[in-house]
């Protein structure tokens, strides 16, 4: 006895791309031991990109226990075991955020920390089958940010991006080409 399975029709939501155009984001990057010659340089680059996304206060008056942004990025990258594609997609989101903000936008001292965490959460949820959960991120933050704050920063971040999270291999190639001179972490792309 044969069982017939009904055909499923995919409908594209307004503002999204058709599902048959999805390309593996990881494909422009060759994931091998030679990919990251200097992980510290990549994390420093990530901290730099987050810091320049928005002009923020330079004096920490509310959270004196926060480490430097670079130290925080390194700490969270190691604790969450971020993959290279997740870091790259996070930075693509940070770039989109920067472009969506008016030039007069300003942030508090801890805003870059929140931008980094929200971008990582969004990228992890876009790329991974088992993404980083908000409660896990809160526990890994050593009390710097509560679960409530992490939920709020993620909501705000997604809203500022207009929920446009789609990233394909061309987006990754453009990002790597635009930042080729700044990347001193030994990233390479096949054919460079």
Automatic annotation (TrEMBL):
Residues 73-165 form the Cyclin N-terminal domain. InterPro entries: Cyclin-like_sf, Cyclin_N, Cyclin_PHO80-like. Pfam families: Cyclin_N. Coiled coil: none annotated. SUPFAM superfamilies: Cyclin-like. This is Cyclin N-terminal domain-containing protein. It comes from Basidiobolus ranarum.
């Amino acid at each position: 006895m044969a069982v017939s399975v009904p055909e499923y029709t995919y409908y594209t939501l307004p503002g999204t791309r058709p599902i048959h155009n999805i390309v593996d984001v990881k494909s422009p990057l060759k994931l091998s031991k030679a990919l990251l010659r200097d992980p510290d340089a990549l994390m420093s680059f990530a901290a730099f990109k987050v810091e320049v996304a928005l002009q923020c206060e330079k004096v920490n008056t509310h959270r004196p226990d926060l480490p430097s942004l670079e130290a925080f990025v390194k700490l969270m990258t190691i604790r969450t075991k971020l993959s290279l594609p997740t870091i790259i997609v996070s930075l693509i989101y940070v770039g989109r955020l920067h472009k969506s903000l008016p030039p007069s936008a300003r942030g508090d001292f801890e805003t870059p920390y929140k931008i980094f965490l929200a971008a990582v959460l969004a990228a992890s949820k876009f790329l991974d089958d088992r993404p980083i959960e908000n409660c896990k991120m809160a526990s890994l933050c050593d009390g710097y940010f509560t679960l409530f704050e992490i939920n709020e920063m993620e909501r705000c971040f997604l809203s500022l991006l207009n929920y446009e999270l789609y990233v394909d291999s061309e987006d990754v190639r453009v990002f790597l080409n635009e930042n080729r001179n700044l990347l001193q972490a030994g990233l390479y792309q096949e054919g460079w």
